[in-house]
Amino acid sequence: MGKITEILNAAQQRAKEMNLPYEGALLPNEAYEIQQAAPGTKLVDVRTRAELDWVGHIPDAVEIEWATYPGMKPNPYFIAQLEQQVDKEALVLFICRSGGRSHNAAIAATEAGYVESYNVLEGFEGDRDANKHRNMLGGWRARELPWEQS
């Protein structure tokens, strides 16, 4: 069994244990490994434009807001925008700040026919620590995976 298969099997098992309605749940380092090793994989960052501009973004990620800033109003065009940019046959990895919006995006994508939808647990910034600061406990940035800031 190859490394990609091992990672995807672990993510699928995690999703079953967590009773998630989509294909799998990946840790950030696993998502990065899949993105690098599996051609055609799409990492979809569902954070707001403000987060992408001010906090940082992941190179080569597809950027589609799940909710808009300010107000965090749901993006009514999310699925249409996803369909314009990502093939339904692709392996799709959703990421947000800490895993909540990407969880909802993975559910919506699965319901729209994206059967290989995975959520990236911990998200870009991870959970808040005891001082209520992010980027310390898990997440894409804290794990020192590639990202850029404007």
Q: Could you estimate the helical fraction of the residues in percent?
A: 25-40%
Order of helices and strands: HEHEHEEEHEHE
- Major β-sheet, in short? 5 strands, parallel
The total of beta strands comes to 7
Q: Give the overall silhouette.
A: globular
Q: How far is the N terminus from the C terminus?
A: 40 Å
Class inferred from helices and paired strands? alpha/beta
Strand percentage: 5-15%
Number of helices: 5
Low-confidence stretches: none
Mean pLDDT: 95
Determine Rg (CA atoms, Å).
14 Å
Describe this structure in words.
This protein has helices at residues 3-17, 28-37, 49-54, 78-85, 100-111, and strands at residues 24-26, 42-45, 62-63, 67-68, 73-74, 92-95, 117-120. The radius of gyration is 14 Å and the shape is globular. It contains 5 helices and 7 strands, in the order H-E-H-E-H-E-E-E-H-E-H-E. It is α/β, with parallel strands linked by helices and 150 residues long. It is 34% helix and 14% strand.
How are the elements arranged and paired?
Elements: H1 3-17, E1 24-26, H2 28-37, E2 42-45, H3 49-54, E3 62-63, E4 67-68, E5 73-74, H4 78-85, E6 92-95, H5 100-111, E7 117-120
Parallel strand pairs: 1-7, 2-3, 2-6, 6-7
Antiparallel strand pairs: 4-5
Describe, in short, the structure shown.
The chain is 34% helix and 14% strand. It has 150 residues and is an alpha/beta fold.
